């Protein structure tokens, strides 16, 4: 489910390994959160999270989630929010090595890293939840606004827009582009450069710069709005999601 790969300089790469598309189940989300939380205690000075070449993560495993009752759906989203919070409050710098397509949940988790390197070319990224019948909770919208600005975030989120890598770079949704083979290498190099700085000054300044994110995401215990779960079970959402699953099965 996860591969932990050491790099020089105390950088730990956490690679999602749930074929074929790294769809996010509660087990993968929990394992990723635990790996990120435990990495500094295991000697990590920086963390890179990556996926397979061509696919960072396809987002939530919708077929699995549709099999859950309300308690199961709520448990998944609470765990997903906890993952985002763990990235937000990480005591060491983090980089998302976006190794390919990154729709929906894959795009969401990328918002919480210090830096995002994405594979250029045909790959797309975006919060396309509205297109599949789901609303975007306000704390996630906040994280998006923080990256690309309020008006651009509104336009992208309300439309459920997916953008290609070049567009994502142009609007600041990702910080750097690289060939798909070099995404992880570039992520590690960026971290190495950051970690060469005087550590106390860098980490204190980083904490101040990310204080707004931590103020929202530092404690996710009650962050999930129950109305979001209500919306998931609404007829419109269920109809769109079941149609999506049917299309996926027909491929």
Give structural notes:
- The chain is α/β, with parallel strands linked by helices and 251 residues long.
- It has a single domain (2-196, 217-250), classed as 2-enoyl-CoA Hydratase, Chain A, domain 1 (Alpha-Beta Complex).
- 49% of the residues lie in helices and 16% in strands.
- It has twelve helices and ten strands.
- The chain has helices spanning 26-38, 62-66, 70-88, 105-110, 138-148, 150-159, 165-170, 183-195, 199-209, 211-217, 226-232, 235-250, and strands spanning 2-7, 11-16, 46-50, 54-55, 94-98, 100-103, 115-119, 124-126, 163-164, 176-178.
- It has a six-stranded mixed β-sheet, sandwiched between helices.
- Helix 1 (26-38) runs parallel beside helix 3 and helix 5 packs across helix 6.
- The chain is globular and about 55 Å long.
- The two termini are 24 Å apart.
- 40% of the residues are buried.
- The mean pLDDT is 96.
- It comes from Luteibacter flocculans.
- This is Enoyl-CoA hydratase/isomerase family protein.
- Pfam families: ECH_1.
- Belongs to the enoyl-CoA hydratase/isomerase family.
């Amino acid at each position: 489910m996860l591969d932990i790969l050491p790099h020089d300089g105390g950088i730990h790469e956490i690679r999602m390994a749930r074929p074929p598309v790294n769809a996010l189940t509660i087990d993968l989300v929990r394992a990723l959160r635990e790996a990120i939380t435990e990495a500094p205690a295991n000697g990590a000075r920086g963390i890179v999270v990556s996926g397979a070449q061509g696919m960072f993560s396809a987002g939530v495993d919708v077929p699995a989630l549709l099999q859950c009752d309300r308690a199961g759906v709520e448990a998944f989203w609470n765990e997903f929010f906890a993952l985002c919070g763990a990235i937000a409050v990480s005591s060491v710098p983090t980089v998302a090595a976006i190794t390919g397509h990154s729709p929906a949940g894959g795009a969401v988790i990328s918002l919480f890293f210090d830096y995002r390197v994405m594979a250029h070319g045909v790959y797309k990224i975006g919060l396309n939840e509205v297109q599949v019948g789901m609303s975007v909770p306000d704390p996630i919208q906040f994280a998006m606004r923080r990256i690309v600005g309020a008006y651009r975030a509104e336009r992208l989120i309300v439309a459920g827009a997916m953008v290609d890598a070049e567009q994502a770079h142009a609007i600041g949704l990702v910080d750097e582009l690289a060939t798909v083979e070099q995404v992880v290498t570039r992520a590690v190099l960026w971290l190495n450069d950051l970690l060469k700085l005087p550590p106390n000054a860098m980490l204190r300044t980083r904490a101040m710069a990310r204080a707004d994110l931590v103020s929202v995401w530092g404690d996710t215990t009650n962050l999930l709005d129950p109305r979001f779960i209500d919306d998931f079970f609404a007829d419109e959402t269920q109809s769109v999601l079941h149609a999506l699953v049917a299309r996926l099965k027909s491929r």
